[in-house]
Sequence to fold (101 residues):
Amino acid sequence: MEDSIHSRVLYTNLQLDNASEMIDKGQFEESYKLCLYLKELLEEVHDLTEPSFSYAFFRLAGLFIDLGNRNFNLESSHIGLEIIESNSFENCLTRDSYTTA
Fold:
């Protein structure tokens, strides 16, 4: 992976941790703004072949959905669902990558 892409994904993962902590503290608006910024950053990188990118994007989707639920923010939930439904994870998730009991 190219250094600048790797740096952005690393930075994004650190900031996703911060956004998650903000949600835990009830700082929903601040977390939402940070998540919107991180979404833009990841969309610039958009390397679907890189698993670390897909993982960061998936984490971001979860935070948007969490924000939507915890702060009654329908737009946030919608963004999270759009990310999940965007087929951004086809290259790293296959039927063989999960099992059912």
